[in-house]
């Protein structure tokens, strides 16, 4: 089912508000992930342009996801009192501006600085979007709405990677990065126009400093005590670790012998993200019908099958494997992120922030560690590393309670 069809299928009650909300957050997910991952097709270009190793070039992505992970904690706290719509909109605009700055950076350190700032600013979108959905939608609509938001992240990831590949056929990498930034500025404006004003009233800050510290500290302790949440946080680490490590280094594999694909050709392979758009927008509804744990395990099994398919030298097998990894990843991520909202109880914003902290930490750390495996064992070593993360994810999924706590 396409994102448009999913929006059309949303429940009839308060349909106009729910559709505007879903479409706006689809754009929020699109903007975040297209900005974050538009550099992934450029990693071999960065290595050649600045004289870097594959692992060093991967810092353009890993550094952004690392600062994003830190920023998510701050955004989760700020979400307790600030207007969620304004916070997300400001983050989107400033992050797109940083992407424009990265495109103009004259040196590698300055490019990394711009990318680090971009990740820091993007922290105001993912955790806040999860909080907004958890607070502003009915419990019965949450899974479908969260699935659509994740579909937006899948579409954004595809647009960033495929769009970058297509732009590189006509422009240099600097112009291509600038174009992605400009597109996401437009997406931010559309997001602001569409997203309904939050109905949830933000808490008022206590006057005494000791009360403020207590008010801030206690909600961050609660998620660690709630059954299943730590397993979900750790699962997010494994999921994005697999996904980013594979996608970071499959480009180096396909641009070298025996494939010798161009950047545009490699970029087109990322059209398999369309499977992620479909699977994530569908996963929310299927989770309600067939059970979250079952669908989560199916998603992990699909990822593992995809990793195995990338091992042969056949280009068709590699592309099929990437498609399966993408499908399984977005099924599992859509289920896990929606499940966090159901298990979190009154600490939704903190739980969403912690899930995404682990999620982007996995992207940053596994993306960097994958470079070591690529250097010392080429693709089989990368495949083995990511398969181990999937198996760890299976063990974690089995630790999550079958039923939501009352």
Describe the protein's topology.
Blueprint lengths: L2 H6 L6 H23 L5 H8 L3 H4 L1 H20 L5 H21 L3 H15 L3 H11 L2 H30 L4 H22 L14 H17 L3 H27 L7 H7 L3 H18 L1 H18 L5 H29 L4 H50 L9
Helix pairs in contact: 2-6, 2-9, 2-10, 5-7, 5-8, 5-17, 6-7, 6-10, 8-9, 8-17, 9-10, 9-13, 9-14, 9-16, 12-16, 12-17, 14-15, 14-16, 15-16, 15-17
- What is the helix content? over 70%
Class of secondary structure makeup: mainly alpha
What is the end-to-end distance?
A: 32 Å
Rg calc: 20 Å
Q: Which keywords apply here?
A:
single chain, Growth Hormone, Chain: A, globular, mainly alpha, 406 residues
Quick synopsis:
With 406 residues, this protein is an all-alpha fold. Helix content is 80%, strand content 0%.
What does this structure look like?
- The protein is mostly helical and 406 residues long.
- The protein has a single domain, classed as Growth Hormone, Chain: A (Up-down Bundle).
- It has 17 helices and no strands.
- The protein has helices at 3-8, 15-37, 43-50, 54-57, 59-78, 84-104, 108-122, 126-136, 139-168, 173-194, 209-225, 229-255, 263-269, 273-290, 292-309, 315-343, 348-397.
- The radius of gyration is 20 Å and the shape is globular.
């Amino acid at each position: 089912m396409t994102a448009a069809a999913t929006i059309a299928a949303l429940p009839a009650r308060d349909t106009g508000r729910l559709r505007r909300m879903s479409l706006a957050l689809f754009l929020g997910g699109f903007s975040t992930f297209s900005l974050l991952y538009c550099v992934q097709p450029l990693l071999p270009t960065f290595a050649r342009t600045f004289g870097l190793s594959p692992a060093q070039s991967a810092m353009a992505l890993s550094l952004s996801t690392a600062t994003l992970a830190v920023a998510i904690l701050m955004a989760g706290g700020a979400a307790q009192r600030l207007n969620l719509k304004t916070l997300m909109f400001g983050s989107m605009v400033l992050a797109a501006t940083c992407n424009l700055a990265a495109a103009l950076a004259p040196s590698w350190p300055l490019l990394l600085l711009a990318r680090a700032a971009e990740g820091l600013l993007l922290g105001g979108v993912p955790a806040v979007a999860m909080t907004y959905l958890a607070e502003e939608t009915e419990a019965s609509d949450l899974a479908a709405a969260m699935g659509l938001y994740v579909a937006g992240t899948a579409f954004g990831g595809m647009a960033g990677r495929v769009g970058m590949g297509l732009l590189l056929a006509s422009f240099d990498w600097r112009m291509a990065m600038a174009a992605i930034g400009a597109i996401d500025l437009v997406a931010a404006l559309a997001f602001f126009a569409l997203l309904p004003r939050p109905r949830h009233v933000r808490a008022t800050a206590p006057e005494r400093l000791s009360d403020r510290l207590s008010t801030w500290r206690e909600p961050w302790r609660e998620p660690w005590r709630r059954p299943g949440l730590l397993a979900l946080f750790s699962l997010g680490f494994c999921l994005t670790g697999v996904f980013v490590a594979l996608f970071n280094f499959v480009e180096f594999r396909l641009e070298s012998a025996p494939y010798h694909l161009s950047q545009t050709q490699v970029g087109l392979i990322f059209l398999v993200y369309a499977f992620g758009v479909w699977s994530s927008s569908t996963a929310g509804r299927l989770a309600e019908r067939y059970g979250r744990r079952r669908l989560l395990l199916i998603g992990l099994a699909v990822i593992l099958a995809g990793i195995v398919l990338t091992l042969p030298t056949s280009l068709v097998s590699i592309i099929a494997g990437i498609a399966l990894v993408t499908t399984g990843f977005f099924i599992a991520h859509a289920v896990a992120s929606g499940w966090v909202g159901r298990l979190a109880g009154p600490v939704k914003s903190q739980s969403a922030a912690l899930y995404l902290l682990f999620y982007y930490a996995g992207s940053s750390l596994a993306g960097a560690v994958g470079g070591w495996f690529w250097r010392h064992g080429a693709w089989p070593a990368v495949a083995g590393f990511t398969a181990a993360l999937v198996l760890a994810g299976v063990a974690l999924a089995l630790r999550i309670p079958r039923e939501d706590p009352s």
